[in-house]
Amino acid sequence: MLENRLLELVIVLLLVMLLFGAKRLPDTARALGRSLRILKSETRAMSDDGTGRRRSGRRAHVGARRCGSPLNTAAPSGTPSRARTPEVAITSPSAPRRRSAAADGSRMPVREHLRELRSRLVKAALALAAGTVAGWLVHDRLIAALTGPACAIPHVHGIGQPTASCPNGLLVLAGVLSPLTFTFKIAVLAGAVISSPVWSYQLWAFVAPGLHREEKRYSLLFTALAVPLFLTGAALAYWTFPQGLRIILGFTPRTFSNSIPGDQFLDFFLRMILLFGVSFELPLLLVLLNALGLMPARTLRARWRPIVFGVFVFSALATPTGDPFTMLVLAVPMTALFAIATAVVSWHDAVRARREREAEAAAPSPDRAGGLDLAVDDIGAPERVAP
């Protein structure tokens, strides 16, 4: 594992030299040092300011006690108070609003929201339970598809008994309840995937009434792009997983054998799937922020070097296998997706700027005088005025 981390560090250092250049490394290091010193001084100043405020508060409290002016001006318990505060009935200002909103049908009260949320959750739970039952019926095929890449790794011998589905004996289940819990986890995961159209629709049906038309359009577009990207990342993780596992297990000494518990194998596999799937969503998040006006294209173009460097550092730290192959498999597609996102954001900003220019050209300018209508209207025959 240490050798893999050293290889990742070498790759990251080479990337730094390619992105920033060897001549700029001393300047970058000095700038980083100055930033750290400024951060340290600001933190110390804030700490000193807070300490000074606490000390001044204590001094004021002690001075008030010495002068005989207590801070608590409440009357003693034995002395009746002359002035009594009139009792005011506190009413919730939201009550009439809820009634009026419920009357016109534009809004729902909180109680109705909770009822709808409970109904949506019950439907999603029933769909998940039905999907879990379906996953339990086909759990043998699912386990074979899940463990097949790991069991097919050549030149790896585990301490488990070799079987027809796992010739290398790498995967084992230790404990009385381990077979049941492992199979149940597989069934629940399959149920979550099978019932995903139902519970995702329930989530959308609960959130959609509170969105505007433009927000609904962006949400549907985001979902339509997010699902294929996540599935692409998950498929890449499924292909990368045995390769990275082969590299890791290749460091096993010849005098030792390997054994991977089933629960640990499943958790490791799910981490890979989620990591690759969510990482492929990050460029889409940049496009969404640009659509909301929070991430202009000039910012991405000006800071592409630090962003690419951060992508490689993130890939090196986040991959659970810790080998350079998995890091590159994750970092290179993320860099390509970042380039595509930058192109999409630049196109969107160009279209937005063109529309703004057209709107400004069509709108009348307050500094420019408009045309005057100098035509003379006929006022008709004059009327006689009686003397």
Q: How much strand content do the residues show?
A: under 5%
- Give the % helix: 55-70%
In the sheet with the most strands, the strands line up as 1-2
Number of helices: 13
In N-to-C order, the SSE pattern is HHHHHEHHHEHHHHH
End-to-end Cα distance: 117 Å
* Biggest β-sheet strands, sense, barrel: 2 strands, parallel
Description:
The protein is mostly helical. It has a domain at 113-360. 69% of the residues lie in helices and 1% in strands. It is built from 13 helices and 2 strands; from the N terminus they run αααααβαααβααααα. It has helices spanning 2-20, 25-66, 94-104, 110-137, 139-151, 178-194, 196-207, 213-249, 262-279, 282-291, 297-302, 304-318, 324-362; strands spanning 171-172, 260-261. The protein has a two-stranded parallel ribbon. α4 runs antiparallel to α7, α8 packs across α9 (262-279) and α10 runs parallel beside α13. The longest helix is centred in the N-terminal third of the chain and has 42 residues, at 25-66.
Features:
387 residues, mainly alpha, 2 strands
How would you concisely characterize the structure shown here?
The chain has 387 residues and is mainly α.
Produce the secondary structure layout.
Blueprint: H1 2-20, H2 25-66, H3 94-104, H4 110-137, H5 139-151, E1 171-172, H6 178-194, H7 196-207, H8 213-249, E2 260-261, H9 262-279, H10 282-291, H11 297-302, H12 304-318, H13 324-362
Helix pairs in contact: 1-12, 4-6, 4-7, 8-9, 10-13, 12-13
